[in-house]
Amino acid sequence: MKILPYLFSSALLLSITACAGTQPQRPAQDARGQAMRGFATEMARKHGFQQAELEQLLGQARFRDDIIQAISRPAEAKPWYQYRPIFLKPDRIQGGAEFWREHSPLLRQVEAQYGVPAQIIVAIIGVETRYGRHTGRYPVLDSLTTLAFGYPTRGRFFRSELEQFLLLSREERIDPRQAKGSYAGAMGKPQFIASSYRRYAVDQDQDGRRDLWNDDADVIASVANYFKVHGWRPGEAITQPLELPDGVDEQGLEPLVEAGMKPSIPLSRLLADGLRPHGGPTGDPDTLASLIKLDAGDHNEYWLGLHNFYVITRYNHSNLYAMAAYQLSQEILAARDMAGD
């Protein structure tokens, strides 16, 4: 996606008005249209946008049923045995090793600066966009307008993201009519939503712009910064598989699984319930962890969710996502080591 200079200007208003006649007009009483006008009024009051120009811009967005359908069936709804193969594929592993090799000096610099392992940074970019090959086909303006005004379940959240996107467009000189991303409005190689883009993206090469589509220095450092700000602890373990000796009652473990993603269970409690970390305990018995259960098809897998694993879930609030990113990172690291890079 080419980033272009963008200002809410009379030239934009003229170009949009010229196109408006080719689009079907909604009735003035349309509730969605009223909501959009109210949003434009608020943006003008809070942030100094020109209301008429913003109304024209929003009026050009397409309301898309395919976006509503896509957000209603996220991949994270799949069981682990179906979810894992989406990301743990040979081409994604080798692609990660190649991306690491291509950006090795930069990754060393960023790892030293932010304390986040290179393999985790690479894996996140691999999970999100296959190292930038698939950054999204949906116009972000379409996605956010559709979800802000046509998806009541999360309308408030997406109206906030639309606000953040318009501010981002003005700050980073992005043409909001050209930016493309995911069906949920996530952008660039690391798929940052607009609020994350504004809050966590960094201008690593100091060229005066945070470009998450084309500038790999900004991309890599922004992922690392996201984890650092969310509390990544350099050098600490991330997760560990657990062994269930014969006789352990899995049903009795459910309350521990349902305690949530945030580490809150002392390791000593898990050991007392019969769980055994593969390779021996990780850390002090008072170390807090979560208990992760993954549906492997014919059996359940259990893992320790340590602090850094929880940090990964802040990128995408799913244990499945975090585990796929972690396991991909380990495969990428092994592939890189095997190649002798």
Structural summary, described in words:
The chain is an alpha+beta fold. Among the domains are: 27-69 and 135-228, Bacterial muramidase (Helicase, Ruva Protein, domain 3), CATH 1.10.8.350; 239-305, no CATH class. Helix content is 53%, strand content 8%. It is built from 16 helices and 7 strands. The strands form 2 sheets. Strands 4-6-7-3-5 form a 5-stranded antiparallel beta sheet. It has a two-stranded antiparallel ribbon with strand order 1-2. The chain is globular, with a radius of gyration of 23 Å.
- How would you classify the helix and strand content by structural class? alpha+beta
Query: What's the gyration radius in Å?
Result: 23 Å
* CATH-derived topology of the domain at 27-69 and 135-228: Helicase, Ruva Protein, domain 3
| CATH-level-4 superfamily name of the domain at 27-69 and 135-228 | Bacterial muramidase
The first-level CATH class of the domain at 27-69 and 135-228 is given as Mainly Alpha
DSSP strand content: 5-15%
Largest sheet data = 5 strands, antiparallel
Identify the strand order in the major beta sheet: 4-6-7-3-5
Strand segment count: 7
Task: Report the span from N to C terminus.
Answer: 31 Å
Rough outline: globular
- Tell me roughly what share of residues is in helical segments: 40-55%
> How many H/I helical runs?
16
Architecture per CATH nomenclature, i.e. the level-2 architecture of the domain at 27-69 and 135-228: Orthogonal Bundle
Element order: H for helix, E for strand:
HHHHHHHHEHHEHHEHEHEEEHH
Low-confidence segments: 1-29
Mean pLDDT: 90
